[in-house]
Amino acid sequence: MMEEIFTPSGTSPLEAHSDCHSHGGGKGGEAAPHPETAPSGSRRKTGRGLWVASKSWLLRFLAFFGIYASSSVCPFCGSPGCPVGAGGAAVIGGTLAFLWQYGLDIIKKGRGVILRIIETSKGGFMLLQKIDHHEIFRPKCDSTKEVLHSIARFEADISPVFPYLNAELGGWDYDQKNQVLLLKLSAGKWITLHAHEIAIRGARDIEESEALLKWIQSQINEIYERREEIVPRYTSQAGLKVMEILKLTPMTNCKACGYATCMAYAAALREGETSIQDCPPLWEEKYREKREKLQAYLESYGWRALDAA
Questions:
Q1: What positions does the domain 4Fe-4S occupy (predicted)?
Q2: Which fold has domain 240-300?
Q3: Of the candidates 258, 261, 297, which has an alpha carbon nearest to the alpha carbon of residue 274?
Q4: Residue 138 has what DSSP assignment?
Q5: What are the extents of the domains in the chain?
Q6: Is residue 181 within a helix (H) or strand (E), and if so which, with residue range?
Q7: pLDDT tens digit string along 32-72?
Q8: CB burial readout 245-277, b (16+ within 10 A) else e
Q9: What is the spatial order of strands in the sheet that 133-137 belongs to?
Q10: CA-atom Rg of the chain in angstroms
Q11: Are the C-beta atoms of 295 and 276 separated by less than 8 Å?
């Protein structure tokens, strides 16, 4: 069962997805801090975790090694003090300590791989089957906003579908190195996808937040199922440059598009807030070459106009 929580204003521990932090690409920044820019405290916590795990393994190793070494003799010479026997005790002790500490995780992962192979062979594999935890909350730094944010967490790794989602849904920003995909929707809504987490920003109410989560979950599964038919895309709309777009407009500042200048139109076009069709002069024969170059430039970054979710 999916666990769902509505957190009252000001009580959310998930500050990384509040309005205090930027969610866009390019000017907007990253959806979440990358490992190399993470606070030093995060690194200290990671270091402590490794130390605790190493210490636990060492204690188990010493216990198993001591028990085996004190209760057995060398299998070759029959002497209890033989270095070969001690070496064998060390190997067995280390192996038992490793299995004691990590055996359950290995079994769980192996079971997951086997189930995935079986489901794939049946043609019914779903990359994201289960949401383990769904938390809905108001922006912590501005509780007056009539919007909700939410975070869904799960065990499945959805990062393999990111290049295909980026191609099909027109991702705003795709960080391939850190496996973060940002989808920009209409009316200030954003969906940020991580390997084991989905963050949704700007929903009107709980019902819309749940609907957006169901929608992106269905898109993940449907697009992953037909990934062999899709050409993956590793570039994203955030890579578009306003000045490059401007160079390919008529640059007449005629205001026929509804914007005061061609610069304003170019900026809105990059954001997906308008389209090529909204610039009448571009469709004149004398601007045909510019129009075709602009279309090719936008398409190379997976550009799309904002759509309702």
A1: 237-296
A2: 3-methyladenine DNA Glycosylase II; Chain A, domain 3 (1.10.15)
A3: 258
A4: -
A5: 3-30+127-229, 40-121, 240-300
A6: strand 180-184
A7: 333 333 344 444 444 566 666 676 767 666 665 566 555 55
A8: bbebbbbeeeeebebebbbbbbbbbbbbebebe
A9: 3-7, 133-137, 148-153, 197-203, 190-194, 180-184, 173-175
A10: 27
A11: yes
Q: Please state whether 4 falls in left (phi above 0), alpha (psi between -120 and 50) or beta.
A: beta
Tokens of 98: 């490793």
Any residues with CB less than 8 A from the CB of 37 and at least 6 apart, and which?
none
Nearest Cα neighbor of 170 from 184, 160, 188 is: 184
- Please say whether the beta carbons of 167 and 302 come within 8 A: yes
CB 246 within 8 A of CB 157: no
* Range 250-257 average pLDDT: 94
Cα 307 from Cα 184, distance rounded (Å): 9
Helix (H), strand (E) at residue 207: helix 206-225
First to last CA, the chain: 25
Q: Does residue 261 contact residue 292 with C-beta atoms inside 8 Å?
A: no
